[in-house]
Amino acid sequence: MNETVQALEARHIVSTYRRAPVVFVRGRGVFLYDDEGREYLDLISGVGVASLGHAHPGLADAIADQARTLLHCSNLFYHPLQGRLAERLAVLSGLPRAFFCNSGTEAVETCLKFVRRYWHARGVRDRLDLVALEGSFHGRTYGSLSVTADVHYREPFAPLLPRITFVPPDDPARLAGAVTAATAAVILEPIQGERGVRPLSIAFAQAVNEACARSGALLVADEVQCGLGRTGNPFYFYTLGLKPQLVAVGKALGAGVPVGAAIVHEDVARAVSAGDHGSTYGGNLLACRAALFFLDQLVAGGLLAHVARVGRHLEARLRTLAGRHASIVDVRGAGLMWGIELNVDAAPVVEAALGRGLLVNRTGGTVVRLLPPYVITDAEIDRAIDTLDVVLSEVPAGVSR
Ligand code: PLP
C-alpha cells in the first residue's frame, strides 16, 4: 500500500479510526480497486451506504448534471427537489413529512428533538423519559450517543442525556414495565446492526406497540442501517408490524452522497415550528438529486424486488455455509443484511477475507457482518461465500458444537 497516504494521515488525521492497510482509489459495481490495482469484492458497501454499488453510471450522470445546474441554495429558499424527495419517502414509509439532514446520527438527533418538541407543544413538560434497548447503536452525537447502550462509546463522554432506561431487546415484559406515563418515546433499531445483526422478534414488536398505545409514548424506528430496501422490504418496521411515528434514515439513501432524514407523522410535524431545527446543508440539491435517483432505482427500477430475490439466495448459501463450519453458531438477518456469529473472535476471519480480496466487517466482537450493495448478483454472492468457505476452513474453531 502507498506509505505516503498512511504517513500523511498519521501526522494530520485525528486517529478515531482503526483502518485496514488498504488504499482504495476506484470502484465499479460491487468491486473496489486499491492503489496497486488489486480487486476486492465489497460485501460491506461503505457500511451500508453504496446501495447502488460503486461508480454507478446513472448516479454519476445525475450528480454531474446537478453539479452543472445548481448544488446548493440553502434552506432560506425553495428548490424543486426537496418536496419531491419528501413525497417519495412519504409513499414508501406511510409518514407524510420529512426533515432532511446529512447523516444517520443527525436523523436520530432530529427525531429526539421532535419528540421533546411534541410534548412541549402539548404543554406536557414532565414527559422526558426515553426507553432504548440494550445493544443499541444510534450514532455518535450527544443525543444519539445517550440512547446508544455500549458503555465504551458512552463512558468517556459522560454525562449524557439523563432519564434513559435500557431494556433487553428480547424481553417484552421488561419493556412493558419500563414504558410509563413519563415516557416520551421508545427508540429502537428494528434490526440491531452494531450488536451483531439481531432482528427484533415480532412478539417484542407487539409489546412495543402495546406499551406505546397504552401510555401514549411515541415510537422512533431507527432504520438508518436496515431501512430503505436493505432487507428486501422498504422498511423493516413493516416486517415486524411496528407502528412508529418517527423514522430515521440515512446510509443507503444517498448511495454515497451524505444525506439523512427524519420521516414523521403529521401530529409530530405539527408540533414543530420555523426556527425549531435546521441544517445548512440539509436537503440540498446534490443530496436530493442523488436520493431521488436511488429511489427511482429502488422502486421503478425494480431494485427492491432484486434485493428480495438475491437476499433469498444469500440466505440459502449462508445456511449451507453454517452447516459446513463448526465455528458458525448462528446466521441472522434479512435480505442483504446478515450477521454470521462465530464461536471465536471475528477479527481474524475479516482479516483473512481481506487478504483474499473480500470485504466484510466485524460487529459485536464475534460476528462477521455482510451489507453488500443492492445490485449484487447471485454469481457475485457465490464468489463471496466460496471465499468465506475457504477462510473459515483456515480459521480454527473455538468450542465445537
Ligand atoms: N443508527 C444506526 C442504526 C446506525 O447503524 C448508524 C451507523 O452505523 C447510525 C445511526 C449513525 O449513522 P451515521 O454514522 O451516518 O451518523
Question: Can you describe this structure?
Answer:
The chain is built from 15 helices and 17 strands. The chain has helices spanning 3-12, 45-48, 57-69, 82-93, 104-121, 142-146, 151-154, 172-178, 202-215, 236-240, 266-270, 285-298, 303-324, 347-355, 378-394, and strands at residues 24-28, 31-34, 39-42, 97-101, 129-133, 164-167, 183-188, 191-192, 198-199, 218-222, 246-249, 260-264, 328-334, 337-342, 358-359, 361-363, 367-370. A hairpin with a 2-residue loop joins strand 13 and strand 14 (337-342). 49% of the residues are buried.
Describe the SSE topology.
Elements: H1 3-12, E1 24-28, E2 31-34, E3 39-42, H2 45-48, H3 57-69, H4 82-93, E4 97-101, H5 104-121, E5 129-133, H6 142-146, H7 151-154, E6 164-167, H8 172-178, E7 183-188, E8 191-192, E9 198-199, H9 202-215, E10 218-222, H10 236-240, E11 246-249, E12 260-264, H11 266-270, H12 285-298, H13 303-324, E13 328-334, E14 337-342, H14 347-355, E15 358-359, E16 361-363, E17 367-370, H15 378-394
Parallel strand pairs: 3-15, 5-6, 5-7, 7-10, 10-11
Antiparallel strand pairs: 1-2, 2-3, 4-12, 8-9, 11-12, 13-14, 14-17, 16-17
Helix pairs in contact: 3-12, 4-12, 8-9, 13-15
Bound molecules: pyridoxal-5'-phosphate.
Determine the strand fraction and express it as a percent band.
Answer: 15-25%
The helix tally amounts to: 15
From the helix content, strand content and strand pairing, which structural class follows? alpha/beta
- Give the integer mean of the pLDDT values: 97
Spatial gap, N to C terminus: 39 Å
Anisotropy-based shape: globular
Give the tally of β-strands: 17
Radius of gyration: 21 Å
Which bin fits the share of residues in helices? 25-40%
Largest β-sheet summary = 7 strands, mixed
Ligand list = pyridoxal-5'-phosphate
